[in-house]
Each structure stands twice: as C-alpha cells, then as structure tokens.
Design goal:
The protein contains 18 helices and 18 strands. With 603 residues, it is α/β, with parallel strands linked by helices. Bound molecules: alpha-D-glucopyranuronic acid. The site of alpha-D-glucopyranuronic acid has 9 residues, from loops.
Length: 603
C-alpha cells in the first residue's frame, strides 16, 4: 500500500498471519517507517484498515510498539424495522425518520445494490457486523422472505458480505401456518419443527453464512408460543435447534408485556413484565438462543433505569437492545446524541459486572438509516450510528472521545472552530432533550401513535401501561416494594435498596420509582415543581444556544448539509417551546404552585 519511498518500502502493510486474534481482531505496529496491520482473516484486516483510517496521519508518524485490538462483543448488530411493502399506518420503515428503506423498494429488494454496498462499508467502518433486514413486526408480505422470497434476501446478503456483515431475518412465529399450510405453530409439534427445519435448510442453501432469526413473539399482538400453552423457552429452543447445524442464532426478544391493560388497574406494572416473564426461564434456553432485552424496562425513553432482567439471568445469553432511531428522542428532527446515555447503560453494574460485560449475546440497536441522501435524515444523527458501533466494539469507551472521532472522520480537515462547534451542539444534546420533555424519568407524555411532540395525558388513560399518575398533589409511579408495584425489588443490592426510598433514589429517576408531592425536595435542593419549570425553560434556552452555534458554522461546510441542519433546528426549537409550554402549563394548573421566578406560563 502507498509506496512512499524510492527504496521500495511501504507506508502500510496489511498482512494475514497472526493467530490467536480471533476472526475480527488485529494488531497494528509501526517500525522503520512502515505501519503494519496483521490479522488472522479478512474481517480482522478490514477492521485494521478502518483503524488506520481513524488514526489518520498519526498512523504514519513516529514509531510505536505493537497494539492488539479485539471487539469486546462478538455480535454488533443493527435491526432494521423495514417493511418490504409500505404499511398503511407505519409506512415503509416503522419508526424510520430517514426516508424509505435502503433494502426494499417498490415492493421488492433493490435491484441496484450500490447503496447497500456503500452502507455495508459504512457499517464496517463503525464496527458493526450483523444486520436484520426486515421489521420485527412481520406482516404478510414480509413473512414470505423466509421461503419463496429468500432469493431477495440473498441479494442483500451478497452486497453486505464483503464488509464482514452477516444477514439476519425477522420471522413470524406463525410462519408455518401463514406460509406452509400447517394447522398449528405449536413449537413442540413434530410437523412444525419439520417445517422450520426444511425452511431453514433452504435459507442456508441461499445464504451459507446466514446469521439467524429475530423473533418478536407474544408481543404487541405478534403470535407466539403462549397460544399453545408453551413457554418462550420452548419457542426459542425449537428455532435454535433448526439453526444449530448451520451455526445460526435465534434472537428472541424479551419485549413481552400486556398492551391491553386497564388503566384503572394499579396492580399491573409494565416495567415488571420482562423480568417476570423471563427470569423463571433462566437456564432453559439453548446455547444458540440469545435473549434480546431492551436496555430499559419500558420502551426507549429518554431516561429509564437499566432493565433488571439484564443482570438476573446468569445462565442465559442476553443481548442488550438500544434504539438508534430516535423514536422517543426527537425523531431525527431534534439533535439528540445518545452516546452518554448508552455509555451510562453499558457501564451500569447490576452486580459486580457491567452491562457491557453481561451482554454476552451482543449489542443490538434499531437502525436510524434510510434512503435519505444524508443516510439518517438529520445529518448529525449519523453520530448516533457511529457511536453505537464503537460502543459495541468497546462498551467502556469514553463517549466524548468517540464523538470527536466521528467529527474528525465526517469533517476531515475541519478548522478548530467547526470541530468545537460540532462538539458543542452534540455533546449536551441528550440532556437538553431530557430537560424540555417528560421530567425525572417519568417518561412518555408524547402524542399517541406517532410519538412526536408533547401530549402530557396522551397515554394516561390508554391500555399501554405507560402512566405518570399526576394529580393535584403530586406525580410519579410508586414502584417500591413497601407500598408500590414491587418493581424496585427486581434489582440486586445495592440498587434495590437505593431505588426503594425517595431519599436515596437518584433525582433523574425519582418519578419512575416514586409518587411524590410537588413540594418534595430533590437532592439538587429544588422542589419537584420548581425543577419541572426550571428544566423546561433551560431546555429551550439550550436549544436556542445550539441553534445560534449552528448558524455561526455556516460557510465552514457543504451548504446543503448546513441548511438541512439549520432547517431542523427551527423545528426543534418550535417543538421544544411546545413541550415547555404544555408541560409547564399542565403542572401549574394541576398543582396551583407558581413559578418561583415568575416567568410566563400559559394558564
Ligand atoms: C415500540 C415501537 C413499536 C415497535 C416496538 C418493538 O413500542 O413503538 O413500533 O414495534 O417498540 O420494539 O417491538
């Protein structure tokens, strides 16, 4: 590579050879003017090459001793919630904010796979090595991808394979009924197992390195083993058994809860559901069955505690699921860089191991990419994609460093003013978003259905189990063991004790765990009501400041990119003000407590 001198020596050598690095590890060293990357196989070399790209000039400066790099997690996966056929309610990409699907167009796999190939390269540069190409809600058309339309999946797999990416498919648990003419999908029925076994054989015929199945079962109306009186381990293990001969994995999602709850019923707590369903099954799952657990107990809110299920199944391989697509965090119209949140999750220690260490089944995220020219709709949302991949490679990485890496790679040769400006607008954006939306971990308060923008009571009297219980005296959900739903008791110590009492519960999660009066004094010294007012004013001010920083960067980058972000800042600011005014007015009316600083709140 890059012949640098007259003596025939090379600046960069990529060499196959070193053993003991695994399939994806590599070493890199610089000596005598040559930088050498060594790996046991192609994937390792690929990651080594991208490592050199990240280092930039530093890769070719000075001399340094051999360094070894290996991913901490073997599976680093993106789940695309893409429909092949445009769904009448959910559109083409469910919760997608970056245009149509990269994979599916006009009801079939894209014939022109150049963009898919470019996507594969982008993902490899981030460190991602697996992709599920269709939505976890498997509708009729998409069910056929497993059988008569597997050739289309194979086309996508071929385009992604050169970048070290294995292709996975979301399947419906009812596939044998929907597609095969069996009367049942009972996982213990011999004919059902035979059907899956034959379907899987054909899948591997088409895609020899196929990764496996992703299954959303008995969840939000999807079919599952409960209909046959079977457990989720029965369901997962049947699929694991048919995948096992080929080295495939079943990713079984733990997002199982009652979505037809009666809001009058205070005994059911959606937050408890995943733990209650799955902990009794610990040890029952096959070795190639991974239990895919959302990082929080509810649903990708801007602030949730870490799911207690992640630390509670020592004999199961959990994968932790994040949401890169910003369903509840501004839908790629708002800048909300999630690196600090994910890092908190991955560093959280349910016991003496961190979540990053417990995620033996890998780190998975719902993709935020579509066919938009900027890939992610909001150009700055690319930082979330990159950060996810890098944290999956190294869960204990410093998110701020990853952010600067992304800035350096995306805006090469950026003057300091641009790099600093980008860092400034992204770095605190998650906390700004948290400030102007639902307070203190209580969650939701979004418009039902599409989940964009405020509606404080939008889900309050609904069947979805996502309540804040605000009344004239106070707000929050009592999840203590002593007087509430008992959810706090699902954690090991010290967390169960810490969360149990409002005195020790961290401020940012107070309303997730406790119902408290508006006058309750937080550790910050403020009352809950004053905290609500202050954070909502501050959140909007922070967006105003970020917008001004962005305006000052015009002329320092491609004008189209600058304009796209500028336009989205207008919408973010409009929406943040809407949140501020609705939330503050709502709580002023409920509580009757005036803002100590006498600011304008609309009664
Ligand atoms: C959320 C989201 C749905 C999605 C579901 C899931 O509830 O709103 O669109 O299907 O999560 O994770 O399965």
């Amino acid at each position: 590579m890059r012949d640098a001198s007259d003596d025939g020596s090379y600046d960069l050598v990529l060499a196959l050879g070193a053993g003991g690095l695994g399939d994806e590890g590599f070493t890199v060293a610089r000596e005598g003017g040559t930088t050498t990357v060594t790996a046991s196989g192609g994937r390792g070399l690929l990651y080594g090459l991208f490592h050199v790209v990240r280092l930039g000039e530093a890769a070719f400066t000075g001399a340094w001793a051999l360094r070894t790099h290996r991913p901490a997690l073997a599976l680093r996966m993106l789940d695309h919630w893409d429909n092949v056929a445009v769904h009448p309610v959910m559109g083409q990409v469910e919760r997608g904010y970056a245009g149509g699907s990269l994979f599916w167009d006009d009801g079939r796999a894209r014939g022109d796979v150049e963009r898919v190939r470019a996507y594969g390269r982008l993902l490899a540069a981030c460190g991602i090595n697996a992709v599920a190409v269709n939505n976890v809600n498997v509708h009729e058309t998409e069910a056929h991808l497993l059988t008569d339309r597997i050739g289309e999946v194979a086309l996508l797999a071929d385009a992604l394979r050169p970048y070290g990416i294995r292709t996975h498919l979301s399947v419906t648990f009812a596939a044998p009924v929907v597609l095969g003419g069996t009367a049942t999908a009972d996982p213990l029925d011999g004919a059902v197992r035979g059907w899956w076994s034959e379907a899987t054989r054909r899948v591997y015929e088409a895609i020899p390195d196929f990764g496996g199945y992703v299954v959303k079962a008995d969840s939000e109306g999807q079919p599952g083993p409960f209909a046959y009186g079977r457990s989720h381990a029965d369901g997962a293990n049947m699929l694991a058994a048919v995948l096992e001969p080929y080295g495939g994995t079943v990713h079984w999602r733990a997002f199982v809860y009652n979505h037809r709850q009666d809001w009058r019923d205070r005994t059911t707590d959606r937050a408890r559901a995943a733990y209650d369903h799955f902990v009794p099954l610990d040890g029952a799952f096959a070795g190639n069955a991974v239990l895919q657990v959302k990082h929080g107990p509810m649903d990708f809110q801007v602030r949730e505690p870490v799911s207690p299920l992640i630390g509670a199944m020592p004999r199961t391989r959990p994968a932790v699921e994040l949401q890169v697509t910003q369903e509840y965090t501004g839908q790629q119209r708002h800048v909300c860089w999630l690196g600090p949140m994910w890092s908190e999750v991955l560093r959280f220690r349910p016991e003496d191991t961190s979540v990053g260490g417990l995620a033996r089944g890998g780190l998975v995220a719902v993709s935020n990419v579509g066919d938009d020219p900027f890939w992610t709709g909001h150009p700055l949302a690319q930082a979330n994609l990159y950060t996810f991949g890098r944290l999956a490679w190294r869960p204990d990485a410093e998110p701020g460093e990853v952010l600067d890496e992304w800035i350096g790679l995306t805006f090469p040769d950026a003057p300091a003013r641009l790099a600093d400006g980008l860092h400034a607008v992204l770095d605190g954006s998650w906390r700004s978003y948290e400030k102007y939306t639902a307070p203190l971990g209580v969650g939701f308060m979004v418009q039902p259905g599409h989940h964009y923008g405020p509606s404080v009571d939008g889900y309050e009297y609904s069947p979805w189990g996502t309540y804040h219980f605000a009344d004239r005296d106070g707000i929050g959900v009592d999840r203590s063991v002593a007087t509430g739903t008992g959810y706090a008791g699902q954690y090991g110590k010290p967390w169960s004790e810490l969360y149990e009492s409002p005195d020790t519960c961290p401020d940012e999660l107070l309303l997730f765990f406790h119902h408290v009066p508006y006058g309750h004094v937080l550790k910050s010294g403020k009352t809950v009501i004053q905290h609500i007012y202050d954070t909502h004013f501050e959140g909007v001010e922070e967006v105003e400041e970020a917008r001004a920083v962005w305006a000052s960067l015009s002329g320092l980058m491609d004008p189209a990119r600058h304009a796209r972000v500028a336009e989205r800042y207008e919408e973010q600011l409009r929406c943040a003000r809407e949140w501020r005014d609705q939330v503050n007015s709502y709580f002023l009316r409920k509580s009757g407590v005036a803002d100590a600083r006498g600011r304008l709140i609309h009664l």
